[in-house]
Amino acid sequence: MSRLRLLVLAASTRTGSYNAALAEFAARRIAATGADVTRTTLADFPVPLYDGDLQEEQGVPAGAHELAARIGDHDGVVIVSPEYNYSMPGNLKNLIDWVSRIKPWPTTGVNGLLMSASPGPVGGHRGLIALRVPLEGIGARLHPDMFSLAAADRAFTPEGDLADSALSARLDATVEAFLHVVEATKHYRREAVAA
Amino acid sequence: MSRLRLLVLAASTRTGSYNAALAEFAARRIAATGADVTRTTLADFPVPLYDGDLQEEQGVPAGAHELAARIGDHDGVVIVSPEYNYSMPGNLKNLIDWVSRIKPWPTTGVNGLLMSASPGPVGGHRGLIALRVPLEGIGARLHPDMFSLAAADRAFTPEGDLADSALSARLDATVEAFLHVVEATKHYRREAVAA
Amino acid sequence: MSRLRLLVLAASTRTGSYNAALAEFAARRIAATGADVTRTTLADFPVPLYDGDLQEEQGVPAGAHELAARIGDHDGVVIVSPEYNYSMPGNLKNLIDWVSRIKPWPTTGVNGLLMSASPGPVGGHRGLIALRVPLEGIGARLHPDMFSLAAADRAFTPEGDLADSALSARLDATVEAFLHVVEATKHYRREAVAA
Amino acid sequence: MSRLRLLVLAASTRTGSYNAALAEFAARRIAATGADVTRTTLADFPVPLYDGDLQEEQGVPAGAHELAARIGDHDGVVIVSPEYNYSMPGNLKNLIDWVSRIKPWPTTGVNGLLMSASPGPVGGHRGLIALRVPLEGIGARLHPDMFSLAAADRAFTPEGDLADSALSARLDATVEAFLHVVEATKHYRREAVAA
Questions:
Q1: How many CA atoms lie within 13 A of B184 on its CB side?
Q2: Could you tell me the pTM of the whole model?
């Protein structure tokens, strides 16, 4: 059995981002299971604001093709995203809108796991609920369980671990269940893509 | 390899329901792949309106336990549901609310596929988008692709087939992709349930 | 200027319900502004589970007509609802489904304010977001601001007031902004209903 | 009574956009009621992709402040937006995310009406349902009725009118009901903003 390859995307571009911190912690926990992990952020996939005329003239931008290629190279994707105004961030949705213009969709049959972090009491869960709609709309198979980290400003140790061991164990359990499904279904995805 | 067992639930109780007709057609198409199919409707799982005091006094009603048992006997579930007021039907949500009171959730890790039918031009898709939230909230792994049948009042032949062969092929393709995932992940679900 | 008349509906049927407690507190705060307040709960509007055949045979049940009449007697409606499985309660949606069968909709142009309470850290806000869709679908004008009470198990004094004065002031401000709009638009609604 | 001032925002940047055509038609119909109408598109409010560090260094960009100023100059806003991937466009959400960083929110108490157009059978309604969440989250009072134009590629006459007179009358009725509420509540908004 070959090692699973997971892509982790931190959908935040702010220095000191709690979502970036959670993405980094999740990446280490996934790597600890024996999987290969690639860490990325939105900044690795630069795209302009979506514009139909721009697409007509110049095609889909390189940043969207780069994300499509990365998705193709991995067995599953973990997106760690903040919540903006009770919904998904516009900049992340904008990247999704560009990727959706690549046909066939590079996202069809791809297993995904969503996480979020927020200093507030809710943890970004409403943003993730909204984010599921376009991702599933372009064929991603999203894990039903999600990991939303509330009070993220007080959640991490200086080493970047989750200070609360129960929360950390909950993240591990979510990751483990997700990786089971990734392992089980990765070949079906390749068939689907080949079709 | 044992035959897959699929539960089809028509979430409509009206005589001449388009959703019931679509559920019947989908059941036949699934059976044609070699799977065992059990046909049910909401009427097979009678429950009262949810009431916390009633639960305290009498426990979760038999209809919800019956659905939980049916889910446990099958490898995947297909729900065919109308859209009411741009969202899911209250009576279906009420049944889900009762089932969610059974712990551990009988729905964790269960593969599901959603379909809808409507005489209008939209086909019930908005209702399905809303329905995903509580089902995924209690752990169901829902197929990202959904089958929404618009203009359902003119869609069926007298024999109950979809008259439009392109639509029928699209339903078959959706079912096939779903059954691949059901086959691949059915064992992981059992581990999850055992844990 | 005649006194405003507000209908408060507690969408919970459990003894000791936090949502009923919040509804009672909100009713008192609204009454303190000089408005007339009518207190109701789901139990005042008994309806069966929605069934198209039942509607065909017996029409819309009395409970739904009773709610429609109550809405017609008041200038605005406050709904205080729990969140079930990250969405609206099925029993509340079921009542909405029945009311939506009354034509013209008794809800068109009616001003509404949504509140929720939960012992958890989120306060039921996700349920209210889902609840807006069908209510706006049948024409209700919902106040954009909502009041979600987290940690509701520790929120009330023995007298039933909110213990946290900042939270109580926030509820008052939300109510005041809502009543301004109710006062301003109540006549336009009557024109709409008359049309 | 002073004339109402309405801002119409076409949230599409494509040449030949159906949403721009619908925005233009709606602007003419609103003007025909005697209101002053300002036509804008996303291109009038250029902003970068949201970036917390960029905000820290350079503040909210001029394009977002320009939209805030335009909103302040008008009594109500009409947004005509396409649907991308079953949700709102990322570029529109990105502009909302920037505007939401201006405190106090320029959107609090602002009356809004949402429209959409699509060549498909659904008309963009799912995108509008998603768009309501962040707009209401920053205080906008959105009209419950929305105007979604399906089959938009065949909907317009060479003069840019809606060819179907029933559809055109439906748009007029929606606009009229909205303008009633704008007229009734415009002063309350100013109080709220002043507070």
A1: 19
A2: 0.96
Task: Give the tokens for residue B51.
Answer: 């009431």
Please check the confidence at residue B33 and state whether its pLDDT lies above 70: yes
CA A41 to chain centre: 9
Beta-carbon neighbour count of residue C104 at 10 Å? 11
Q: Which of D116, D126, D145, D164 to mutate to test the interface with B (most CBs of B within 10 A)?
A: D126
- From A163, A162, A188, select the one nearest A175 (Cα to Cα): A162
Q: What 8-state DSSP symbol labels residue C48? A: P
Q: Which amino acid is at B74?
A: H
Nearest residue to B152 via CA among B115, B116, B118, B114: B118
Helix boundaries (H) for D33-146:
52-58, 62-73, 90-99, 125-137
| Residue D195 tokens, joined | 């507070």
**Which amino acid would we find at residue A89?**
P
Q: Could you tell me the CA-to-CA distances from A150 to B147, C95, D156 in Å, in that order?
A: 36, 34, 49
For residue A99, give the chain D residue with the closest CA.
Answer: D85
- ipTM given for this complex: 0.95
Helix, strand, coil share (%) of chain C residues, nearest 5: 45, 15, 35
Tokens of B31: 């059976």
Question: For B58-66, what is the mean pLDDT?
Answer: 98
CA separation for the pair D6, D8 (Å, rounded): 6
With cut-offs at 50, 70 and 90, classify the pLDDT of residue D14: confident
Q: Are B31 and B50 in contact (CB under 8 A)?
A: no
**CA distances, D3 to each of D25, D32, D68 (Å):** 20, 12, 21
Query: Who among C109, C141, C181 is closest to D188 (CB)?
Result: C181
The gap from C-alpha B136 to its chain's centroid, in whole angstroms, comes to 13
Strand partners, C149: C117
**Domain covering D5-194 in this structure, CATH number:** 3.40.50.360
Tell whether B194 is within 8 A of chain A (Cβ).
no
A26 burial level (CB within 10 Å; 0-12, 13-18, 19+): buried
Q: What pLDDT, on a 0 to 100 scale, did the predictor assign at position A173?
A: 97
Beta carbons within 8 Å of B79's beta carbon, 6+ residues apart = B9, B11, B92, B112, B113, B114, B115, B131, B135
Going from N- to C-terminal start, the domains of chain A cover 5-194
Residue A142 touches chain B, beta carbons under 8 Å: yes
D85–A134 C-beta distance less than 8 A: yes
Contact B93, C88 (CB under 8 A): yes
